[in-house]
Design goal:
Blueprint: H1 3-20, H2 22-25, E1 28-29, H3 46-52, E2 56-57, E3 61-65, E4 72-75, H4 78-83, E5 91-93, E6 97-101, E7 106-111, E8 123-129, H5 140-143, H6 145-169
Parallel strand pairs: 1-3, 2-8
Antiparallel strand pairs: 3-6, 4-5, 4-7, 7-8
Helix pairs in contact: 1-6
Bound molecules: 2-acetamido-2-deoxy-beta-D-glucopyranose (2 copies).
One 2-acetamido-2-deoxy-beta-D-glucopyranose binds at residues 41, 43, 45, 49.
Length: 170
């Protein structure tokens, strides 16, 4: 094999790897580009609308991106969710970037731990199912199109760049 052939093979391999990556590692980005914040319109259904556009199964992960002074809590009951009761969370994080794994099927109640934020709509209910036969967790390519299309764009860009470099060198 001459050098350009090797280069093209390596590029093809890298592109394929990038295409397959989201199936194993990409968490769902909560709230997409806006992240975990108080919704502009203080609308309580904002995050629940986001959650209802996705299907979550055991083993999936959610990524929450938020301001350093904000926080994330998981509470155990619908009542605590409704009341924005922050006194006994099952989980708490405030590092600004939290990946939370949905370890078991059931209903998860996420709220902001900041007084007022939760009441203003920074809260979300997520229902997690057992995987269907043959379905594996975090198959982002099937269930979260936006992430896989981003990765595809990256891999296509890399392929083009390498092809241009190869054409230039040989
Ligand atoms: C909140 O948003 C939902 C749709 O996402 C809409 O149906 C509802 O009317 C909104 N509520 C308020 C108070 O704006
Ligand atoms: C908050 O939730 C805890 C745990 O469920 C409960 O013991 C407490 O009474 C609640 N506080 C309020 C103000 O509802």
């Amino acid at each position: 094999m001459n050098s350009p052939a090797i280069l093209i093979s390596v590029t093809a391999f890298l592109a394929l790897l990038l295409l397959l990556l989201p199936a194993f590692s990409l968490p769902f980005d909560v709230g997409d580009d806006s992240g975990w914040v108080v919704p502009n319109d203080h609308n309580d259904s904002r995050y629940n609308d986001w959650a209802s556009t996705n299907r979550f199964i055991t083993g999936d992960t959610l990524r929450f991106r938020y301001r350093k002074k904000d926080s994330l809590m998981v509470v155990g009951t619908k009542k605590e969710y409704r009341d924005c009761n922050t006194s006994q969370p099952l989980y708490f994080a405030n590092n600004g970037d939290t990946v939370y794994k949905l370890n078991a099927p059931g209903t998860y109640y996420f709220i902001s731990g900041i007084l007022g934020h939760c009441q203003d709509g920074e809260r979300m209910i997520v229902k997690v199912m057992n995987p269907l036969p043959g379905e594996s967790s975090q198959t982002g390519t099937d269930r979260d199109f936006s992430d896989s299309s981003k990765i595809t764009a990256v891999s296509v860009t890399i392929s083009v760049v390498v092809a241009v470099v190869a054409a230039f060198l040989y």
